[in-house]
């Protein structure tokens, strides 16, 4: 497809149903990124190896070629377009190479030479500084001295200094230390440390763009979610005024935090090349670069220390969250806030302390799908509850029912959550999976799991069953909420077409919205049009520039509610060929329910609740698990399209199962998904599975192994190593 803008002179933002990678332009050049082969150091120069023959129309651009700002402001972080000399992490973009042939570009890429500053390396008189006082390395052999350079970095920096904290959130309710010192309230004291580094890989189109300059305007085709930030970033870097930058948003494939802001860096790099060469430039990240720069899973470690009285009531929770955000991360504070909100899970406790910190490191910026962010906290707290059940002997079902915060109430934490009919959901999943009986049977057989005969081919498999609960908050009323456009507008044209002035974020949401419309109004779905153009009071149309992307706050359920209100108004009118428009907005009073400064109140517009059980067997001969059954029950308000919702949950389950063990997708022959009947307003449920299934899986595995499984993803030999370690430990004790 040839990349041409329709009505380019009139509309600054257009939306395309095409992928940018399918687009082309006459005399188009391709681009590949040159990344740092080192984790640390100062670059003296970047050039081709001596003797390299550079074909005509091939160019190498670095930060020195940027006409505008070399670094851009994104939220509270300053991010370099290319490394300005000081290397932040291995894989950091340091240059862009462009030319008309992809294969030649890949060959030339290996002939790029990176020279490190000898004066920087001579600061220290260590043997590494003397040995490598001047380093010259081409990209193809850069990794050979990576270990030496890391050792050199250790001599240049004092690693005994505290790590640099770039964001933090501290929450204190009650007196945790006093509760820990009270013997009555500390009949049981359980500690655990949990790590969830699951990488939800994607084989979709990688991030990139197509840029060209025409008629004094800069035209960009890219799958950007944050158009206002992209426009500002490109304007700052290229020097083009915002009114001369025209963007066509192509189909979006990724919704991670890095995809939100790093796309602006990628587009700016390509735009600089397009301006310098005067030719269209198409820039696509390689699959390897996509995983390193856009999809790098976060390093989040969560520690729990929980005190319970003799009746099983939680008296105190001390939670520590440590997050390696990489070299820079504009979303670090928002990530910590969301992790803190979910840190104590659904549980009510009078004494809670959460200490959350994000650290800067020489790693690439970590990336998180914000809709799945809560899953890291839920993985930790739900596994902690499982460990408490093992230590205390209380049933996991009873523990949750005794300690959960129920209904819409001000809990002893400073947050107000609505968990709907969470008690009914927990009871229902326990009955449907026969959880109590199976858990008791598996617990009775735990004591002899690691006897010598257990590894025999005649030994029966060990069984385990796990339970997990979580909520999924939508419409996060945090710092970005009031900047978002939370309104819904529908207009009816003279041709009796119904125009929804909001673009569905996914095909499944489009299906749900379409069904909602046809269920409420007699109209052929072929006459339903979705657009991002809104009608102003003057009657003119205006295209939304996506000031705040939906990914940051999760507004799908809110827009669905507003859509229903618009349809209710339209039903009271006649569709008779007269054009009219209806608009509904969220009341401003909802913004006052959350106090970001005090970090208290109602943080979400609404919350869905989900619970899950996983039943599995462990074969001590093959050291592999076999998942037998998964039961999921969700309270998501009124389900507008049950079939679409069920399919979405099943897809999430399959995707989750594929990532629990690296390079070894799991399967399950019996999956049950049920929704609780409700007339409450619809709630967002699409990502609940990621918060409950991993924790239920590790809980079941921990019971089957009689040994805590504290991290994900597992490797194919992880279970063997756990069993081997436990067997050796028993031998030493004997």
TrEMBL record:
<dbReference type="InterPro" id="IPR000674">
    <property type="entry name" value="Ald_Oxase/Xan_DH_a/b"/>
</dbReference>
<dbReference type="InterPro" id="IPR037165">
    <property type="entry name" value="AldOxase/xan_DH_Mopterin-bd_sf"/>
</dbReference>
<dbReference type="GO" id="GO:0005506">
    <property type="term" value="F:iron ion binding"/>
</dbReference>
<dbReference type="Pfam" id="PF01315">
    <property type="entry name" value="Ald_Xan_dh_C"/>
</dbReference>
<dbReference type="GO" id="GO:0016491">
    <property type="term" value="F:oxidoreductase activity"/>
</dbReference>
<protein>
    <submittedName>
        <fullName>CO/xanthine dehydrogenase Mo-binding subunit</fullName>
    </submittedName>
</protein>
<dbReference type="InterPro" id="IPR008274">
    <property type="entry name" value="AldOxase/xan_DH_MoCoBD1"/>
</dbReference>
<dbReference type="InterPro" id="IPR016208">
    <property type="entry name" value="Ald_Oxase/xanthine_DH-like"/>
</dbReference>
<keyword id="KW-0500">Molybdenum</keyword>
<feature type="domain" description="Aldehyde oxidase/xanthine dehydrogenase a/b hammerhead">
    <location>
        <begin position="16"/>
        <end position="120"/>
    </location>
</feature>
<dbReference type="Pfam" id="PF02738">
    <property type="entry name" value="MoCoBD_1"/>
</dbReference>
<keyword id="KW-0560">Oxidoreductase</keyword>
<dbReference type="InterPro" id="IPR036856">
    <property type="entry name" value="Ald_Oxase/Xan_DH_a/b_sf"/>
</dbReference>
């Amino acid at each position: 497809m040839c990349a041409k803008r329709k009505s380019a002179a009139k509309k600054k933002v257009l939306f395309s149903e095409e992928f940018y990678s399918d687009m082309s332009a006459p005399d188009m050049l391709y681009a590949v990124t040159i990344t740092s082969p080192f984790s640390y150091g100062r670059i003296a120069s970047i050039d081709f190896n001596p003797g390299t023959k550079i074909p005509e129309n091939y160019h190498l651009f670095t930060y020195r070629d940027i006409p505008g700002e070399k670094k851009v402001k994104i939220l509270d972080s300053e991010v370099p377009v290319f490394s300005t000399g000081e290397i932040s992490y291995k894989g950091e973009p340091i240059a862009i190479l462009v030319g008309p042939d992809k294969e030649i570009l890949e060959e030339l890429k290996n002939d790029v030479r990176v020279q490190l500053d000898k004066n920087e390396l001579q600061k220290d008189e260590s043997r590494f500084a003397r040995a490598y006082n001047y380093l010259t390395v081409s990209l193809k052999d850069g990794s050979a001295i990576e270990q030496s350079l890391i050792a050199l970095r250790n001599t240049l920096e004092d690693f005994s200094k505290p790590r640099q904290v770039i964001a933090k959130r501290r929450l204190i309710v009650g007196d945790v230390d006093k509760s820990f010192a009270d013997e009555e309230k500390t009949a049981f004291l359980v500690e655990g440390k949990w790590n969830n580094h699951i990488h939800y890989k994607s084989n979709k189109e990688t991030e990139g763009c197509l840029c060209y300059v025409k008629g004094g305007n800069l035209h960009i085709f890219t799958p950007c979610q944050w158009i206002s930030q992209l426009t500002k970033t490109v304007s700052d870097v290229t020097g083009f005024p915002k009114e001369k930058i025209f963007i066509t948003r192509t189909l979006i494939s990724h919704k991670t935090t890095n995809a939100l802001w790093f796309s602006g860096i990628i587009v700016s790099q390509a735009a600089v090349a397009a301006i310098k060469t005067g030719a269209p430039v198409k820039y696509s990240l390689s699959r390897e670069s996509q995983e390193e720069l856009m999809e790098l899973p976060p390093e989040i470690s969560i520690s729990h220390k929980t005190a319970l009285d003799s009746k099983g009531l939680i008296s105190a929770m001390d939670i520590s969250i440590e997050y390696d955000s990489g070299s820079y991360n504009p979303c670090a504070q928002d990530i910590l806030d969301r992790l803190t909100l979910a840190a104590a899970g659904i549980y009510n406790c009078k004494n809670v302390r959460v200490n959350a910190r994000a650290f800067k490191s020489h790693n690439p910026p970590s990336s998180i799908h914000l809709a799945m962010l809560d899953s890291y906290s839920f993985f930790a707290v739900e596994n902690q509850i499982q460990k408490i059940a093992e230590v205390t002997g209380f049933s996991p079902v009873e523990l949750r029912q005794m300690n959960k915060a129920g209904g819409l109430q001000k809990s002893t934490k400073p947050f107000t959550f609505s968990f709907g009919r969470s008690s009914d959901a927990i009871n229902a999943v326990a009955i449907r999976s026969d959880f109590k009986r199976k858990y008791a049977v598996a617990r009775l057989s735990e004591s002899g799991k690691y006897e010598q005969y257990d590894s025999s081919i005649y030994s029966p498999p060990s069984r385990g069953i796990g339970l997990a609960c979580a909520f999924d908050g939508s419409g996060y009323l945090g710092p970005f909420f009031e900047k978002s456009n939370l309104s819904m507008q529908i207009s009816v044209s003279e041709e009796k077409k119904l125009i929804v002035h909001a673009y569905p974020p996914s095909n499944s949401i489009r299906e749900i919205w379409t069904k909602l419309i046809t269920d409420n109004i007699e109209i052929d779905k072929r006459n339903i049009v979705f657009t991002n153009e809104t009608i102003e009071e003057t009657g003119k149309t205006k295209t939304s520039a996506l000031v705040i992307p939906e990914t940051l706050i999760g507004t799908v359920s809110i827009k669905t509610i507003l859509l229903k209100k618009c349809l209710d108004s339209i039903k009271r009118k006649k569709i008779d060929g007269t054009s009219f428009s209806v608009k509904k907005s969220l009341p401003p009073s909802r913004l006052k329910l959350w106090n970001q400064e005090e970090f208290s109140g109602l943080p979400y517009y609404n919350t869905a609740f989900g619970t899950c059980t996983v039943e599995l067997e462990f074969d001590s001969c093959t050291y592999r698990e076999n998942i037998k059954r998964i039961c999921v029950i969700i309270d998501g308000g009124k389900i507008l399209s049950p079939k679409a919702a069920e399919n979405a949950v099943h897809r999430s389950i399959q995707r989750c199962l594929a990532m629990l063990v690296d390079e070894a997708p799991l399967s399950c022959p019996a999956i049950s998904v049920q929704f609780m009947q409700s007339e409450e307003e619809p709630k967002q449920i699409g990502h609940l599975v990621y918060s409950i299934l991993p924790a239920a899986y590790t809980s079941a595995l921990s019971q089957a192994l009689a040994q805590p499984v504290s991290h994900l993803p597992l490797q194919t030999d992880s279970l063997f190593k756990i069993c081997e370690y436990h067997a050796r430990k028993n031998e030493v004790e004997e």
